[in-house]
Amino acid sequence: MSNWLILLSILFSVCSINAQTSISGRIVNAENGEPLPYASINFGNNSQLLTNIDGSFQLEYDQKEIQLNISYVGFRSKTVEISNAVQYVMIKLQPAVEQLQSVVLSSEENPANAIIRRAIANKDQNDPQRALRHFSYKTYTKFLIDNLSKDMRLRADTSNLEMETIINAGRAFLSEKVSRNSYNSRKGLKETVLGLENAGFEEPVYEVLSLKSNPLSLYKNDYKLFETEYAGPLADNSFKNYYYTILDTTTVERPAYVIYFEPRRQEAVAGLEGLLYLDTLSYAIQQAKAQLLGAIKLEVNHYYNYHPEHDLWFPKKQVTTIRPGSGGKDISVFGGLISVGTLQRKDNILNNIFGGAPGDNNAYLSSTSTNYDIDLKGFSPIKTGAAHIEVLPGVEEQPETFWRENRQEIFTQRDRNTAALVDSVINARNIERKLEVKKAVGNGYYPLSFWDLSLNNLLKYNRYEGIKIGAGGKTNSRFSNSFNLNGYIAYGFKDHTFKYSLGSEIFLNKSTGTSLELTYTSEIKEFGAFSYQKKVNDFSILQPRYSNITNFYDYENLHASLEHRFTSSLETEITVSRSDISMNDSFDYRYLHEGRVYSEYQLAEAGLSFLWQPFSKFLHTPEDYVVIEHGFPRFTAQFSHAFKDIAEGDFTFSRLGLRVDYQIRRLDQSRTEFILEGNYAFGELPLTHTFHASPNNTNEYEILNRFAVAGKTSFETMYFNEFYSDRQAMLNIRHQLRPFYFTRSIQPNLVIVSRFAIGDFENKDKHTDSDFKVMEHGFSEVGLELNNIFAGFGLTTAYRYGAYHLPDFEDNISLKFSFQLQL
Fold first, then answer.
1. Strands 451-454, 459-462: parallel, antiparallel or unpaired by DSSP?
2. What is the pLDDT of residue 347?
3. Is position 361 within any domain?
4. What is the mean pLDDT of residues 205-211?
5. pLDDT score of 683
6. pLDDT surpasses 80 at 185
7. What is the DSSP string of 407-423?
8. Which domain holds residue 46?
9. HEC assignment per residue over 668-704
10. CA–CA distance from 453 to each of 399, 471, 472, 483 (Å)?
């Protein structure tokens, strides 16, 4: 018995000797209690620790007591001895006038500001993307979402956001990526993914590739992290957004100024707090640290290596960590909008990630990118129009030898356990199915086995058809990877008529978006409608104008098209079609041509359309192209020609449309949008194929009777069928102010709108039984929108002025509600 006691005593003594003591605390200003961010704490054998931006710190030591030496610029240094019985300490520093002898500058301004000015002035020599004509490197990235607690709760989720689905279900996600990066000054930076491993998924989750968790440069004006843009600490206008303070100078071989930066106007512009280590000779960034503490704790660390042959500091490593916080400031990640100050206070994905059950506050996200095989002279040709991120075929099938050769971070046993956990969670919770649903819904479909149900055909309403119900969709890859069958059938309860479509699309080359489609359709169509075949996906459950349209014509159309993507930014489509047009009870229209009156006619047409997005960034997978960052301007164009006496065509005419979209987005969440569109037609042109300016006002006498849903680009005070043109130009300007913050769920935004259209019409007398105007003097309206007042609903008003101002004041006013739903 005594031997056991001796043994236990020895073990206890050994454990006590090697036990780690943890202490946390905070450094504050003794006069006002304000935290001192990045105060220097020296302890042990020349060990150093910096406090967080809230003055907090935590350290571990294995002694009975420890001596802390705390220093901070402008404050008296202090030495504190702490025993291992203390678990928390608050240390107060007294302000003092202090000068940094190591900083010698001729400017009389704040020395830190003078250093920052020189760093900004030297960006052309220090930013690799400005200083070098070309370079190349490889990157290994480990993206991890884990839980520090032993008990990882499994909870059902209701979100269709892919990462939230994974985290809510299992609180774990692990992804590894190896990529080759090439840069040249003309075509920018391109990433080629060589290997990708997503634990638990049979197919790679490409969405994680577009997450901006590790931006390369801190020199840019905007610093984008996940889905939030922050003001760059070395932006050209950085003094508008940040305060700067010198904290220290390092004493290494290449000394650096340690500059603390903090946001100047946090409620207006998203900003981070942190440290810049700026080379005392070149003013280049040697190292940087940025933090955001609030609802979540965000920390980003940038590390650079010096390359003497180029006198350049090049990024070596970046570590981004997100942990639970205490409320206040938020960020955005995985498409969820999260506040910074009062910028984006909305319910979001991280609330669910880090919310969890009571006491479950240990989830964290970590993304580490390490650059290696860096060649600052390396030139790799970049194909014109290449995608920003290119995923090579077979990246998810790389052998273990590939990962052993390219891993730049230790793949721990915990990482392996996380991967195993994710495998079981994804299988148990059917996560891949939820990702499939999310992706399909974003394109207007809901997947049911081998069939994707169209959400656009389920329920509609307009004044001619009344309530219109239908069903339709298309087959998916479970049916065939080579082609699909598509179609729908719908019935209008007011016109008592079935409408339908049936077609098939053959995928000739998915990698280039090349496909051949053949479709037959029997439907109704609005007079004067001009629809671009190639356009940005604009699926919307609610279609504001459609419910108010009164003038339709019947058409039966046999349509064939060939789509092809020449570059990542250029999509094209060639079409040929044969249509039978006839009038119905909604509009008794006749077209007079060469002494004959037409109420029915045939059209044989061919056309070419394209969508060009030269400033957008794309992710190119073996299966598809995905826009990962919208850039402007964006161009859409379409030309079509109708042939007489070919396929029994009755008329010869041509139609041309060109649309340019441009946006100016600002860090304060305000933005200005411009849409300029021109349409031109000539030849034997019936009214059905002319142009209207997208009117959205019904012909009701009372204002309240005209109350409806407002569109985004439609003319809200222009009455339906009031104007038609065979040539027209339109300009739509929207300026959205920074959202007003009331609560997390109520953040309305005010939009000032101005619209103008001008048009002309030749041979107006050839269109019988129609009474419309021509916009030869220009139509003008101005409006206000207060959107997202609650649950996506808002109110809008517009006023009609200028040449077509009406005598009665109330006829020039529109009052409507708006609805914006984000899936």
1. unpaired
2. 38
3. no
4. 68
5. 95
6. yes
7. --S---HHHHHHHHHHH
8. 21-93
9. CCCEEEEEEEEEEEEECCCHHHCECCCEEECCCCCCH
10. 38, 8, 6, 17
- Amino acid letter at 452? D
SS3 16: helix
pTM here is 0.83
**Joined tokens for residue 740:** 């007003």
Res. 442 pLDDT band, cuts 50 70 90: confident
Q: 347-363 b/e with 16+ CB inside 10 Å = b?
A: ebbbbbbbebeeebbbb
Structure tokens at 76: 């008296």
Higher pLDDT, 346 or 292: 292
Q: How many structural domains comprise the chain?
A: 2
Which of 67, 93, 119 is the last residue before a domain boundary? Answer: 93
Residue reference for tokens 């504050």: 28
**Cα(119)–Cα(57) distance, rounded to whole angstroms?**
30
Cβ within 8 Å of residue 15, ≥6 positions away = none
Domain assignment present for residue 374? The answer is no
Q: What is the DSSP string of 155-194?
A: -------HHHHHHHHHS-EEEEEEEEEEEETTTEEEEEEE
Q: What is the pLDDT of residue 336?
A: 35
Amino acid at 106: S
Q: Is 275 exposed, middle or buried (0-12, 13-18, 19+ CB in 10 A)?
A: buried
Answer whether residue 541 shows pLDDT above 60: yes
Own/partner contacts of 397-400, CB < 8 Å, gap of 24 or more, are 398/178, 398/194, 398/195, 398/197
pLDDT score at 325 = 64
Q: What is the pLDDT of residue 294?
A: 67
- Window from 480-484, 500-504, 684-688, 790-794 with minimum mean pLDDT: 790-794
State the CB neighbour count (10 A cutoff) for residue 508: 15
Q: What is the Cα–Cα distance from 553 to 688, expressed in whole angstroms?
A: 8
Residue at which a domain ends, from 93, 119, 153: 93
* pLDDT bracket for residue 32 (50, 70, 90): confident
At residue 400, what is the residue type? E
pLDDT-based confidence at residue 436 (cuts at 50, 70, 90): confident
Q: Is 471 among the domain residues?
A: no
State the CATH number of the domain containing residue 84.
Answer: 2.60.40.1120
Q: What tokens were used for 550?
A: 């009164």
Using DSSP's 3-state secondary structure scheme, residue 351 falls into helix
Q: Which residues contact 82 (CB under 8 A, 6 or more apart)?
A: 23, 65, 66, 67, 68, 89
Full DSSP string of 507-521:
EEEGGGTEEEEEEEE
- Cβ–Cβ < 8 Å for 766, 592: yes
What phi and psi values does residue 2 have, to the nearest 5 degrees? -65, -35
Q: What value does the mean pLDDT take over residues 770-789? A: 92
Q: Which token pair is 729? A: 């130009």
- CA–CA distance, 99 with 326 (Å, rounded to integer): 36
94: pLDDT strictly greater than 80:
yes
Tokens of 356: 């969890």
Cα 744 to Cα 748: distance, rounded to the nearest angstrom: 11
Say if CB 695 and CB 711 are below 8 A apart: no
φ, ψ for residue 47 (rounded to 5)? -80, 145
Q: Is 17 exposed, middle or buried (0-12, 13-18, 19+ CB in 10 A)?
A: exposed
In the chain, the percentage of residues whose pLDDT exceeds 70 is: 81
Give the Cβ contact number of residue 104 at 10 Å: 8
In a domain, 257, yes or no: no
DSSP 8-state symbol, 665: E
Structural tokens at position 599: 């109420």
**Residue 39: both structure tokens together:** 């105060």
Q: Write the DSSP string, 138-161.
A: EEEEEEEEEESSS-----------
> CA–CA separation, 725 vs 155, rounded Å?
58
Structure tokens at 396: 């998810």
pLDDT of residue 162: 38
Banded model confidence at residue 424, pLDDT cuts 50, 70, 90: low
CB 76 within 8 A of CB 96: yes
Phi, psi of 531 (to 5 degrees): -115, 130
- Per the DSSP assignment, residues forming a β-bridge with 181 are 137, 191
Dihedral pair phi/psi, residue 478, rounded to 5°: -70, -25
